[in-house]
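Thread: Newbie trying to understand structure tokens

Hi all, I'm a second-year student working on a class project, and my supervisor (Dr. K.) asked me to get a predicted structure for one chain before our next meeting. I've only ever worked with sequences, so writing a 3D structure as a token string is new to me. If someone could post the tokens and maybe explain what I'm looking at, I'd be very grateful. Here's the chain:
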Amino acid sequence: MKIREAHRNDYTISTDKDKLDILNIHKFLANETDWANGIPINTLKTSIENSLNFGLYYENKQIGFARIISDYSTIAYLGDVYVLKEYRGKGLSKWLINEIMEHPNLQGLRRWILLTDTAEWLYKKFGFTEIPNPEFYMEKHNPNVYNATDKTNANNV
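---
Reply by user tm_fold:
Sure, no problem. This is what the structure looks like when written as tokens:
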């Protein structure tokens, strides 16, 4: 897939995996989030390798991230979205989501999925809504998968 970049003053959004600062992404996701708390770095690397990634940079420093899991024809899952605290309030998260939603390989999809308990206001600006029929939604969820004492964690290699 062709690498895409967008620029705004000293900020850049890029889909180039080689630019990603894996250690800093890991530090944030593993320590600053509820959804990926304690994620092993090898699990993160595998998730990045198998996703369409969007790095957000100030000059050359990575300050944000998001990734898409998709078949590029019918469905996309938006996850691991963040902007570092000191860069919030500048419209960067809105710009990041806009760049994701406008990516040419993500057009014409039947469904987008997002799980969030923060920044609903942001995602609503891009057409995300609450599930109209939550009784149809099913999941298999293991919130302790990254816990080192969880014996079912096959990702901790």
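A couple of things are worth pointing out once you decode it. The two ends are 29 Å apart (CA to CA). The chain has one domain: 5-136. Feel free to ask follow-ups in this thread.
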